[in-house]
Amino acid sequence: MIAEHWPLFGLRLRTPRLELRVPDLTDLAGLAQVAAAGVHDPGVMPFVVPWTDRPPGEVARGTLQFHWRMWGQWAPDDWALHLVAVHDGQVIGTQGVDARRFAVLREVGTGSWLGREHHSRGFGTEMRAAVLALAFAGLDAQWAISEAFADNAASYGVSRKLGYADDGIARHVVRGEAVVGRRLRLDRAGWAANRTIDVRIEGLEPCLPLFGC
Known about the structure:
The protein has helices spanning 2-5, 25-37, 56-73, 102-105, 123-138, 153-161, 188-193, and strands spanning 12-14, 19-21, 78-87, 90-100, 107-114, 143-149, 165-174, 177-187, 200-202. The protein has 213 residues and is of the alpha+beta class. It has one domain: Gcn5-related N-acetyltransferase (GNAT) (Aminopeptidase, 3-Layer(aba) Sandwich), CATH 3.40.630. It starts with a helix and ends in an 11-residue tail after the last strand.
């Protein structure tokens, strides 16, 4: 079994409607298809790297290559866990959580996207709540950070709902233009005070050394 050699394949995060897991090849194929079909309004760009501007076939291949690259680069002091979100047996998007020097800093970042047909259904909140539970309850994180462009009301709304506080701004160049990102930060007390979604974590213990824990 692959999980004997790479225990992250046995990790599961479960919310009332979703299962989050490290994708196998079938899951990745489904995720690539979702990405190629579109994950946001083409008139706006919610990502610092505009990877969705490419033709659908290239977006699909890039999605596969990104996940493979993250697997190959994994190190306990520099890791990025990218999970697929599965609803009723269908891959609908991806949720990531990452950290550098986690054993010292105890801080994680998050990022996610959903297929357009799955927007505005509360899935983004459940996905973020799942990895926050993994970070705070499972890995003993002290902080979680996030960022959304000033015009990304949906992402900002998820952060505020889960207890994040404003933490300044960052400026980026996207599609050749300057854009402003709103940074947000969540501490352990804020996470605990704003927990409203039940999250079950399975298969974490054998993964802990991979997270630097």
